[in-house]
Amino acid sequence: MHASVALSFSSVALLACVSCALPPPCDSEIYCTGPIFALYVVLAAFRNLSNASPNSTVPPSKLQEFLSTYFEKPGTEFEPWTPPDWHDEPKFLGGIADGELRNWAEKIHHLWKSLGRKMVSGVKDHPELYSQIYSPHPVIVPGGRFRELYYWDSYWVINGLLLSEMTDTAHGMIQNFLYLVNRYGFIPNGGRIYYERRSQPPFLTLMVESYYQATKDKEFLRAALPALEQEYRFWMQNRSVAVEVNGAEHVLNRYHVQVGLPRPESYTDDLELAEGLTDDRKEQLWMDLKAGAESGWDFTSRWYTDTDGHNNGTLRETSTSQILPADLNAVLCLNEKTLASFHRILGDIDSAALFEQTAARRLEAIESVLWDAERGAWFDYNLVTHSKHFEFYPSNLAPVWAQCYSRPEMAEKAVQYLKGSSALQFPNGVPTSLRDSGQQWDYPNAWPPLQHMLIRGLSKLPSEDAKLLAFDLAQRWIKTNWLAYTKYEAMFEKYDVNGDGKPGAGGEYQVQLGFGWTNGVALQLLDQYGLRLVSGSRRVSPGLLLPLVLSVTLRLQ
Ligand SMILES: *[C@@H]1O[C@H](CO)[C@@H](O)[C@H](O)[C@H]1NC(C)=O
Ligand SMILES: *[C@@H]1O[C@H](CO)[C@@H](O)[C@H](O)[C@H]1NC(C)=O
Ligand SMILES: *[C@@H]1O[C@H](CO)[C@@H](O)[C@H](O)[C@H]1NC(C)=O
Ligand SMILES: *[C@@H]1O[C@H](CO)[C@@H](O)[C@H](O)[C@H]1NC(C)=O
């Protein structure tokens, strides 16, 4: 998902700036470029430190001493905050039939209190002393090591908060994002200045939609709309690309960060990864790693490419910006339809019609470029080899979730595609891919937002088959989360599809507890299927699994 450590950023960036004379990693005068930075006593002290250690290997104890003298401990920009709108017994709990699951849902509801954070006043008054980006309202953080707000995580957090009847907290979080759009023209990946050039999957419009559905607050909608349109313009101006397929030109979107430098928060990792490459290749790799971070899938074999146009290779072959992702374009299609509906609600028929046309053009582009009639799903498109990537990812069904297709049979074909994909044979969720690359957005990890989009999409389809599958996947996911909770008394950011409650692993950092989006997705599924879900101690009716078992068996013959 994301990787940031405020403290290690400071130290590593300093090390790098001083010792390798590379250009600065961002625009902040203090943290990266400016005269104050250059002259600052911290830098002088750091020079002293390096001079004292000839091989530029500062002993850890000396570095630690330097850090504790000149930098605050990580996390000091935030103080704990108990959301004042938290209260016992939100209504949705009453809709959960299974007693054990209801108790557990109540515990998840309690977790919001431990994930609330408020910025200390210093961040507003002395922004130059902090890498944290100021935002005016308290937030629910994802949990674990993440000491700042994150963008796409917050969509599922907000959906969970709305079920917990915490509309003020949800409102404040959305206000923060609107504030960030007004300040930067888009939403940074997370609340740190080293994220100022990259975003994350664009879910703000859908957050506002969730809030509007819960409150019917038209004035809020009216006030939010200009920022939502501004964010949309950012994606269209800075992240779109024209592609010609069968003689027709289409415009679709990609993740693309034009900063050819290592990620400040993972500086040495990126430096080492690029060792031995030409300068041009280095810059390209660093841009594509940042685009990978922007995609939210950092990192994954999904963004690897080889010259034949397969998703083959290693982290060094990450080529995110060459790829038009099915899910990003589905989210933007849904944003376009949602913006049209907002304008309609507010009585601006002309603007509504404009966004409807945009959505129609997007739908056509998605069908021409990403849809594969033979396989019956939507696939990422490689701009360099002009071919689709046919590996399995849950994102191949994102247009079902966004309801962005022209004919109902396309979605039904996609259900058959899913059943034939071998992605349903795991007891604890649908994996992120079928390739075990060691990266965290790959097999065997399953991530809450991907489960939710898949289940939500299937549950909206008219066929009984799709609805049954949606419920079956919800049951597996709830069971996985519940089993892990009974073992560890914790909610994790991701799970292992084979572990019966084992947390996920891999990637750049240890699995994290908390956890905002996990809690949000669990609450949403418990709300949607509260009457039918059972806890891990009872079994799902085997009849439900039979069609799946059959489809797997047949495929293997
Ligand atoms: C750096 O070292 C010099 C000589 O030891 C000392 O006078 C100076 O105070 C040091 N500067 C800092 C900022 O630590
Ligand atoms: C510096 O590195 C060289 C080669 O690795 C080593 O032989 C030498 O002892 C080191 N010097 C110090 C002061 O650590
Ligand atoms: C978006 O593109 C515009 C125009 O090319 C540019 O000025 C702006 O800096 C870009 N914004 C970001 C965040 O990259
Ligand atoms: C991926 O690369 C490996 C090793 O180079 C090769 O054996 C395999 O056939 C490739 N797979 C595809 C789909 O190209």
Write the layout of secondary structure elements.
Elements: H1 6-20, H2 35-39, H3 41-51, H4 60-70, E1 78-80, H5 99-115, E2 116-119, H6 121-125, E3 139-140, H7 153-163, H8 167-184, H9 204-215, H10 218-238, E4 240-245, E5 248-253, H11 267-273, H12 279-294, E6 323-324, H13 326-345, H14 349-370, E7 371-372, E8 377-378, E9 381-382, E10 387-388, H15 398-402, H16 408-419, E11 445-446, H17 448-459, H18 464-488, E12 495-496, H19 516-528, H20 542-556
Antiparallel strand pairs: 1-2, 2-3, 4-5, 6-9, 7-8, 9-10, 11-12
Helix pairs in contact: 3-4, 5-19, 7-8, 7-9, 7-19, 8-9, 8-10, 9-10, 10-13, 13-14, 17-18, 17-19, 18-19
Bound molecules: 2-acetamido-2-deoxy-beta-D-glucopyranose (4 copies).
Structure, described:
49% of the residues lie in helices and 6% in strands. The chain is mainly α. The strands form five sheets. A three-stranded antiparallel sheet has the order 1-2-3. It has a three-stranded antiparallel sheet with strand order 6-9-10. Strands 4-5 form a two-stranded antiparallel ribbon. The two termini are 37 Å apart. It binds 2-acetamido-2-deoxy-beta-D-glucopyranose (4 copies). Residues 41, 44-45, 48 line the site of one 2-acetamido-2-deoxy-beta-D-glucopyranose (NAG).
